[in-house]
Amino acid sequence: VLQPPESGGGSVQAGGSLRLSCKTSRLIFGDSDVGWYRQGPRHACELVASISRGSEARKYYLDSVKGRFAISQDNAKNTVDLEMNNLEPEDTATYYCAPDRGVPTCYGQGTEVTVST
Q1: What span, in angstroms and rounded, lies between the C-alpha atoms of 68 and 79?
Q2: Which of 22, 54, 55, 65 is spaced 20 to 30 Å from 116 by Cα?
Q3: pLDDT digits (tens, 9 = 90+) for 22-63
């Protein structure tokens, strides 16, 4: 059984934090930049954050999450994490990680994040 690469979702109250983790297998991700995407009741599939491979590790953030979310990678563990702080109800969505190839990518099981007021 193929395990989804995403983990770490859950339910929190507004203002809370969660840390999502993505297992970036070479088979699926190769050397591609890695993106965290989300799709929820309030928005279509959108890129939330991405990080480039290599030593530069350039990062991108959706405007609405800047200052609250932080993306990082651990090359030894082949993981890309998304630290989410000061969560808002608008962050409620299913979160997916996928290669960042410039196309919104929300498929697979993902991991659910629910933020309540």
Answers
A1: 20
A2: 22
A3: 999 888 888 899 999 999 987 899 999 999 987 788 999 999
Pairing of strands 59-61, 6-7: unpaired
- pLDDT band (50, 70, 90) for residue 83: very high
Q: Which amino acid is located at 94 in the chain?
A: T
Please give the helix or strand (H or E) that residue 97 lies within, else none.
strand 93-99
**Beta bridge partners of residue 49, listed in sequence order:** 36, 61
Give the tokens for residue 23.
């297992």
CA–CA separation, 85 vs 57, rounded Å?
Answer: 21
Q: How does the average pLDDT of the chain come out, rounded? A: 93
- Which residues are within 8 A (CB) of 47 and not within 5 positions of it... i.e. 6 or more apart? 35, 36, 37, 60, 62, 100, 104
CB 15 within 8 A of CB 30: no
